[in-house]
Amino acid sequence: NSDRELAKLSIEQTEKNTIETIKKSFISRENGILQRQIDAFNLEDARSEKETAERKKAVGQATEIDVLTAKAAADQAELQLMGDDSTVKKTSELLQVSLGWKANAEPVFPTIPETARESIEQISLSEDTKKAVDNNLSLQINERKLNLSEGEANRENLSKSMENQKEKIQSDLLSRYQSLKQALDAQAQAVLQEENARKNYEKAERSLQLGTISVKARNKAKNAYTIAGLQKKQADLKLTEEYLDYRAGVSGLATAE
Questions:
Q1: Model confidence over 69-108: pLDDT tens digits?
Q2: Taking the chain, what is the end-to-end CA distance rounded to the nearest angstrom?
Q3: Three-state secondary-structure class, residue 72
Q4: What CA–CA distance (Å, rounded) separates 203 from 210?
Q5: Which residues touch 162 (CB under 8 Å, ≥6 apart)?
Q6: Alpha carbon of 203 to those of 38, 73, 191: distances in Å?
Q7: pTM, whole model, 2 decimals?
Q8: Residue 254 carries which DSSP code?
Q9: Which site among 61, 64, 115, 158 is 20 to 30 Å from 96 CA-CA?
Q10: Distance between CA atoms of 246 and 173, rounded to whole angstroms?
């Protein structure tokens, strides 16, 4: 019966790790889609810069080097976009296969939930650290081995190993918590950057109506605002990813080795 319990713990650990990997794949796919949108706007800006350089060269206001530099930037932006397409396609296919769909299926992927700031602010690291040790599956597996063990030397080794594991679990959860706090700070920064980009875009719209800036300058400000909004969504995703990672550590998956 005890051996059966050991097998049960190992299966539970594998299943939980698989679920966490799939969650991360969903987030990675969504992040890739956002990055593709960002890079599409970057390509639009790069092509606009190339056209401007070519027009300036035609009237003697730019050099051949200016044109070649702008062209290289546009070519690089195009390659980046192609790479984004490939990454999203690959991530989607791997996710579909791991969930039992065919690679060429077109399933509706779930929306990634946002993580509320309050959920993070209410965390008690000391309480969660205790839970992380109590729930840790690697530790429970070694505890089961200790109960089954008969040799004194073997029992002593397992006991030492478990003490080391407890320290590593505490350290790992602290690391996960710090990553979560960093993601929270980054998300707050992304909110400010989006707000600044919105103000710049609104100013550009007013300036265009007054005739003090070009359509190209207004379009660039508009793209920058759109990109800032997409980057805010990426920051939201990163926050959710780190929060899920932290919760997984508390629920038994903190690294113990």
A1: 999 999 999 999 999 999 999 999 999 988 999 878 888 8
A2: 26
A3: helix
A4: 11
A5: 139, 142, 143, 146
A6: 22, 27, 19
A7: 0.92
A8: S
A9: 115
A10: 7
